[in-house]
Amino acid sequence: MKFLSYIKDSAHGIALSIDEQVLGLSSDDPNYPGSLDDLIGGPPTALADAAQTLIGRGEPLDLADLTLLPPCTPGKIICVGLNYADHAAEANLQVPEHPVLFSRFASSVIGAGAPIWLPRVSTALDFEGELAAIIGKPGRYIGEENALDHVVGYSVFNDATIRDYQLRNPQWMIGKNFDGTGPFGPTLVTSDELPPGASGLAIETRLNGVTVQKSSTDQLIFNVGRLIASISEAITLEPRDVIVTGTPSGVGHVRKPQLHMRSGDVVEVEIERIGLLRNPVTPEAI
């Protein structure tokens, strides 16, 4: 099942993408099955029941008429650094023995189609195409053998980074959390539609139509199950928490010459069988 969240005519809605159609219901419709925020972490059949309602009652929609939202409102956003060996190599850093973790805040997240803000204080805005795993079942001390049972679905993330702020000190937090720099979505694809851990899927980032990153999710150093097991040793994972699993090689900051995103650019991240996340770049709005 492939779900989207949207706004149309000022009303929030939920949609199902199926057989090249998008079928949706807005919150003001009596058949509205609830938001993805409500359904994630709900009863085991909540998403399947919503899908049946959308198939039977949903209105055909044109994506051009919708404002696409992130597939859910994240609780915790836990990002993973240096999780592809080729990216660690291009950064002249050793492959880590344990996952390198940092946090993003929900205040940085935007939906597909929304502008990524180029801040007034920097021009070092970089792209990072990544697979996102969305937690649907809570847990602590989760065993790796059961970890994927806690994932409700997968989406696409662009961990766009202000590099000069990121590299000012050993803590990456500020460069990863500028407002308007975390595109997420547009789809949530349920786990049952994909290989275990969303492994073996092509991932590609394009800047103005030119491929700048290209890899496969089977190249993750720490796969989704391992990440969940490791993170949950310290942190209780809860529904709508998002694990952003790391980026492959090709980031702009290490290129010679460097390739940073500029106003007027369009960046796309596409993951096979999950979807396409497309955003323009524009000067900061404040």
From TrEMBL:
Where does the record place the Fumarylacetoacetase-like C-terminal domain? 76-281
What Gene Ontology molecular function terms does this protein carry?
acylpyruvate hydrolase activity
Q: What is the E.C. number?
A: 3.7.1.5
User: Could you list the residue ranges forming a coiled coil in this record?
Assistant: none
Bilayer-crossing residues are none
Determine if rRNA-binding is one of this entry's keywords.
no
Q: Which UniProt keywords apply?
A: Hydrolase, Metal-binding
Q: Which InterPro entries match?
A: FAH, Fumarylacetoacetase-like_C, Fumarylacetoacetase_C_sf
Family of this protein: Belongs to the FAH family.
> What name appears for this protein in its UniProt entry?
Acylpyruvate hydrolase
